[in-house]
Design goal:
Structural class: alpha/beta
Number of helices: 15
Helix content: 40-55%
Oligomer: single chain
Bound molecules: guanine, zinc ion
Largest sheet: 8 strands, parallel
């Protein structure tokens, strides 16, 4: 990976970086759309690329279940499998310890999942997670971490943080033995819940391994409420490595994270909310299912460059089809992904042009000042 800081804001910790991976350049800060099952729901890879998106996320746990490693090896990886020629990041499966906690048992060796399809148990170890991510061939791969919900308290939080450090070491060894470090970049994931002392210990341990990791993620968050944790982690991480806030996706949270020094984020929110009929705009979210849109002939946002708005598909039309015809969900999904990309793109422009605080003020005034 080539990673270069291009510009920094002089009043916040926001920065613009250029990250060059095996499948091209991605400018940071960036929002990564989530393609859990090797597809952004409703869109082809070609459509996603035509929106200007250069980095998406797949999930190791899900791709290992279906299609599995064998077909991925046969076609030469997930890029080929999904017809995606730009950059790809895979999450390790660690998050499924929380999202599928009813089906998992955790040991020092790894996470034992029972298949939601067959009930059959499968062990996911740090080494296996890395091996699967090698078969997937993602440009950025994540360590397997021991994740607890941000609501968890007590000794389990410390245990999960310490285990995440031990699992990072196993991931590093396995990755470095593979000889793939030139094409696939391993990221560590800082854990420790909402406890500043645990976060500090995790930061120290993981920063000490800096020569063996290409970047860092901040994990264990579940939305935007834990700004103190993000601030502490972003400040404690080295400035010559990208910083990735996992699972952050509301525009207002993205911008606060960027101001705190975060470079990357991902979330299912913009694509999921589209399927429920909500279009994101700079004047706040627009619930297209509401009857007030039934006769509105204007597009979601007349200034928006997305294919949906450029084709002048009306709010009325979208109101009519959004939750009953898949084409409606696809149209709003494309709009929402362009919106997220614009929030981050405007942030990059503002940082470079030394007016990032102004952009923040304008964004928040518009986003919360109007009724959508
Ligand atoms: N996605 C959102 N949060 C997390 C996390 O803490 N770990 C992993 N692996 N994925 C996540
Ligand atoms: Zn649009």
């Amino acid at each position: 990976m080539q990673f270069e800081v291009i510009a920094t804001c002089n009043t916040t910790r926001a920065r613009v970086c250029r990250m060059k991976l095996a499948h091209g350049v991605t400018m940071l800060p960036t929002f990564m759309p989530v393609a859990t099952q090797a597809a952004i729901k409703g869109l082809t890879s070609e459509q996603v690329e035509s929106l200007g998106i250069t980095l998406i996320l797949n999930n190791t746990y899900h791709l290992n279940l279906r299609p599995g490693v064998k077909p991925l090896d046969e076609v030469g990886g997930a890029h080929q499998f999904q017809g995606w020629s730009r950059n790809l990041l895979t999450d390790s499966g660690g998050f499924q310890l929380v999202s599928l906690s009813k089906f998992t048992q955790i040991t020092e060796e790894g996470a034992l999942f029972s298949s939601p399809f067959t009930g059959e148990p499968t062990m996911l170890t740090p080494e296996q997670s890395i091996s699967i991510q090698h078969s997937i061939g993602a440009d950025i791969i994540m360590q397997l971490d021991d994740v607890v919900s941000s609501l968890t308290v007590g000794p389990r939080v410390a245990e999960a943080m310490e285990r995440s450090v031990r699992w990072l070491d196993r991931c590093i060894v396995h990755h470095e033995q593979s000889g793939r470090q030139d094409r696939q970049n391993l990221f560590a994931i800082v854990q420790g819940g909402l406890d500043p002392d645990l976060r500090e210990r995790c930061l120290q341990a993981m920063v000490a391994r800096k020569d063996h990791v290409a970047g860092y993620a901040i994990g264990g968050l579940s939305g935007g409420e834990e700004k103190g944790t993000i601030k502490q982690c972003a400040e404690g991480l080295p400035s010559d490595r990208p910083r990735y806030a996992m699972g952050i996706g509301f525009a207002e949270d993205l911008l606060v994270c960027v101001a705190l020094g975060v470079d990357m984020a991902d979330c299912v929110f913009p694509t999921r909310t589209a399927r429920f009929g909500v279009a994101l705009t700079f004047n706040g979210p627009l619930n297209l299912r509401l009857r007030k849109h039934a006769k509105a002939m204007e597009p979601i946002d007349e200034h928006c460059p997305c294919p949906t708005c450029r084709s002048e598909m009306s709010r009325a039309m979208l109101h009519h089809i959004v939750t009953i015809e898949t084409a409606g969900a696809h149209a709003v999904t494309q709009h929402n992904l362009v919106f997220q990309a614009q929030v981050m793109g405007y942030a990059r422009d503002a940082i470079i042009e030394e007016r990032f605080p102004d952009y923040l003020r304008t964004f928040f005034a518009n986003y919360f000042g109007n009724q959508g």
